[in-house]
Amino acid sequence: MSDLDFHVRSTLERTVTAAPPPVPVETIVARATTWVEPSRRPKRRLAFALPVLAAAGAFLAVLAWPTGDGATGPAVGVEATNADPDADFDTRPETATSVAETVAVATVSVDDGQWLSEIIPTIAQQLPNVSVEELWAALDRNEPDQPFAPIDAELESADVPGLTESRLRWEGLLLPTTYSVKADASADEVIVQMHEEFVRTATELGYQDGAEMFDLSPYELVVVASLVESADAVNDGDRARVARVIHNRLAQDLPLGLDPVHVYAAQDRELELTSELFVTPGPYAVRLSPGLPPTPVAAPSAASLRAAINPEPGSWIFYVVADEQGRYAFSTTSDEFRNDVDSAFESGLID
Prior knowledge:
Blueprint: H1 3-10, H2 25-35, H3 43-55, E1 59-61, E2 77-79, H4 92-95, E3 105-109, H5 116-126, H6 132-141, H7 152-157, H8 165-168, E4 178-182, H9 187-204, H10 210-214, H11 218-230, H12 236-251, H13 259-266, H14 275-278, H15 302-309, E5 318-321, E6 328-331, H16 334-346
Antiparallel strand pairs: 1-2, 3-4, 5-6
């Protein structure tokens, strides 16, 4: 299968439905150039490939594709026929001769906030042809794109159960969303596709300008986005305010004091948070020392990536859950925060 076939297929769900055959070359080119990003596949590739299909009386056949509601069709592809172009459309498929491989596709969904140790088995469960071991090996073989790659010296201090340094560098850099991938895609292709989507999203949000805006590298800004994600904010307003709290604490050289960081460092969703845990030194000891943890602590969604670089203006440095819907109360002083904590405790929202 050619790269052209794969990239047309991978972005097919963003296109309009196929026109009735026969499809003129001009129509195919006009549509296909909206499917294939020019920066990745120059249009001259289309100019070479598509007239060949048209000369054979090609017509575009959309056999099935993700519908947007989670359903996935069996295949999509380009089909060519030598039938009389004047023949009725309903009779053409009966005499059609396939000259292009049909591309089977699968849908892969990754939830917001998952850890890398959870994402890898999630992918493998949805792609039977790719194993957990193959996906981990793909991470070992590949490197994240600059400027989102972590600094090796920072990774050397990180000690996360089950994650080697070569794998830990990928934490937070695979965008959680729903993907259409080749059903027979290799582990490397899946990882690259997910990382490219992350890079595209962060780049469009302006992450390369993070140093000028917040004195943070693009990678450090991703760490901030992961902290926003770990807060499980229920609306974009709370996400933007959580982001402001994090930026304010960094600017004031205050410890972040965020419990989900400890949970991530232990790789235990059921971790019991104790006073002893909070005073144990380490790179993820965010109650003891100011500054960011060395890596992201969750896969940030596009919404959290947006909040991290567009925090709501404010002077807050505290937040705590405020109601049963999961909304937060934000405060500026210790006294305000203690009152918010007491209210949350009395309401049974925290213990």
